[in-house]
Amino acid sequence: MVLHLHISENMAMPSTIQLFVFSAAASVLARAYAPAYSLGLISTTLLLFLALFISKITWTVVIYPKVFSPLRHLPTPDDNSFFSGQTKRVFREPSGRPMRFWIENVKNEGLIKYAVWFRERVLVTDTKTLGEVLVTKVRASSSFS
User: Fold this and answer.
1) Minimal CA–CA distance to 2: which of 117, 90, 119?
2) Are 85 and 118 within 8 A, CB to CB?
3) Which of 27, 41, 49, 55 falls between 20 and 30 A from 89, CA-CA?
4) What is the pLDDT of residue 6?
5) pLDDT at residue 140, rounded to an integer
6) How many domains does one find in the chain?
7) Would you report the helix, strand and coil content of the chain in percent, each value rounded to 5?
8) Which domain holds residue 124?
């Protein structure tokens, strides 16, 4: 049995619109209180937005999954790409074939972590672990969204 669980980051990241609004507000404040650091409303807003957006992408794609993710210690398939994980293989092969291969060939204790489009996913590989995930170790505060 194959069950895919989508694990989202427990740290809420601001949306792109929130980043832009923050950039615009910071640009207005810079122009009012530190005009020497302002390049004009539009230029400062775009520059701040670009810096924040690149920081958000770097955090989401590189830093969080590799350093802070609670899933980082789970076994993974050997042929992971640093940035895109298993995206190429999952889309190239028929549905479910890569997962079946990993279940048979990746040493695991019931869970395998893989990534598709920069998102971590967990593959449950046996019925005992499935029971633990669905019944035994469910937290009351967890939500499936």
Assistant:
1) 90
2) yes
3) 55
4) 47
5) 52
6) 2
7) 50, 10, 35
8) 3-9+70-136
